[in-house]
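Cross-check.
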Amino acid sequence: MDNKNNFSNKDVDWGKHYDYYEINFRENYNTISKPQNDSHFEMIKSNLKYYLNKNLVFAEIGFGSGLTLRYTSKYFKKIYGLDISPKNVEYTNKELIGEGITNVECINFDMLKLNESFKNKFDVISFIHGLEHFSESDYPILFENIKYYLTENGVFTGALPNDLQFNYRMCPNCNNVFELDGHLSRHTIGSLKNLFENNKFQIIHLDDFNTQYFLRYRGLIRTIYYLLRNQVLKKRLDHQLEFIVKPIR
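Predicted model, tokenized:
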């Protein structure tokens, strides 16, 4: 795991940040996040079939424009969207109601602050492209809260960039250096494996290439070409990391 510095996720007012970006750039964010959400949902359908159950409860942290909330609403009894942006919560709730989706509820939520009302509430917690926004000092708090919210047999699943380099910029007004996407850490399969094991999670699934997604959305020929090209050129797979883990109780 490579960390930007000693900054913590708590050093940024993410609620204010996403109040602006999730509403004003919604279509742009939706376009960027759709492949990420689609791939992760294909992974869930392939590896969590037992959990796709109308008697179970699903939660997504940082749900963005709500793509995965919509996908999973057909498979679970109740869906919760947990987001740090009050404006995005309000906006997405109105969208879902307007679309006739009645089993989804969006709630304003900070993952680093324990919410005791969520104790043992969720059978599945999903976090797509979120772990990279936390630093090493944040992870113990983050993971303990996730364990607190999961049911006895609950699982934590998600996706994040595969070893994506930091992209720094300097603010012309204050001259402070910042990471363009707000990333505080970067991961490979190896670093993510160590992170979960060090925080007492059993790894159920961890991969950097989602074959089911590529076959469905890109076809057999393009998938074979992509894999062979990367093997011949000895390049890493330019795809997101996807995981399913379960707390070791």
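The radius of gyration is 18 Å. The domain at 2-247 is CATH 3.40.50.150 (Rossmann fold). Passed to J.P. for a second look.
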